[in-house]
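Hello Y.,

Per our agreement to keep a running log of every chain we model this quarter, I'm adding this entry. I've kept the format consistent with earlier entries: sequence first, then predicted structure.
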Amino acid sequence: MRNPRQGTARRGRDRRARVLPARPGADRIEGPPPSVAVVGAGIAGLAAATALAERGVAVTVYEKRPCLGGRAGGWPARLRDGTTVTMSRGFHAFFRQYYNLRGLLRRTDPGLERLTGLPDYPLLSADGLHDSFRHLPRTPPLSALAFVALSPAFRPEDLRAMNVPAALPLLDVRVPHIYDDLDGTSAQAFLDAVCFPEKARHLAFEVFSRSFFADPRELSAAEMALMFHIYFLGSAEGLLFDVPRAPFPAALWEPLAGYLARHHTEVRTGTAVEYIAPTEQGHLVVATDRDERRHDGVVLALDSAGLRALVARCPQLGDAPWRERIARLRTAPPFLVSRLWLDRPVAADRPGFLGTSGFGSLDNVSVLERYENEAARWSARTGGSVVELHAYAVPPAAARDVEEKRLLGQLHRVYPETGPATIVDARHEWHEDCPLFPPGGYADRPTVRTPHPRLTVAGDMVRTGLPVALMERAATSGFLAANALLEQWGVRGQTLWTVPDRGRSTLLRALAARERRPAVRGCPR
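Predicted structure for the entry above:
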């Protein structure tokens, strides 16, 4: 059921977006096709497999889980009332800046009909402050100026107290230069140095920090600044986003699996790779618990923990410095997704998605029947609501049952009408496999290319040298990994797009150039 307030998925393309043409080469492989193993069927692995298969490479995808999509995957579950539903690891926003991810989805959905736009990105603070991005102009810096002017979190006295010179590097974020400037500083220290208003900090900047499942004290300021550039000051796409109309498998991955099958890709779900070993002839042997196969190339599209573990089991992969860097990769704290099927509806004016601040561990609330057809059918049949709660960066030692109860209590604060509701069923997903980007950690993160010319790495932890993050970094790195292999066979790879690779205003860039290390300065007194 489609909410009439929702729009269609807008195509999206900033007029200043940057195009990165692929290296020249043949359209497809000529002669016997080389064989490539893609280890991991998340967004990065599926992007790599797609680009390779389209050009005639014989691709085998190895995925230890039974489903595709990685952290954006889904699987069937049966509720106590007998309904079969699709469970997942929670809400994902498909921003219009995600050019390469959206390009991947267009392989099976050219008009992005399986996505729908949510009307707003609302934020709520526990002290009653509300913020919204719906009516802001999209073009920077007007977007930032309008946000400051309209947001109740910015008071005149707060603005006067801000250390404006310290904030200037945000106006000209470039990759990898921003890491040279800010990677040694935490996001918390950066905001302290800027004297960013406390209330606005929770409603504005911590939205980006929490997107990385990290406490601001444990997140590189460079990564936060890059997020600010991608979503706010560097792109004219704005902060509104699209979401799938159906659960992830039906909307995204089942159609793509069919597309890959038509391109002769073998997808081996439920198959974990145990080790990889290079041969003297330049091939790579990939071994599972079932068999061994020789491939001409490999894409490692794993999460940080999976990559760390596999490399540790494969002493012949890479050289010592590369292996040591992989071993130092860190994983973000656990996160919790609680999905509740309630016997009564939430209030009619509740948005499909709400970001929250100051409500304990609760980071956002989604009302799935506002946009997802499966939840809408359940809601229409039962008169209830399907509500999803996210808690990012939960303390590792926290008791899970206690945190689940606390999260429910915070929902009752945010949406009081849920207090008397009976929970028809609930599912709680705990995971600890997102990458952590700590201060000073950029140099340890892998690049797409490795010491072995036929071994590449893809994923949302990978250094791409491009202004991308989260799901878009995963998709972009997957395409880059495919391009690196195709280049060796003389085949043209995938053309990529990104948001502008530097600040949009010449004057603001000049001002930013005067201040390169803001975190070492204190607030003016």
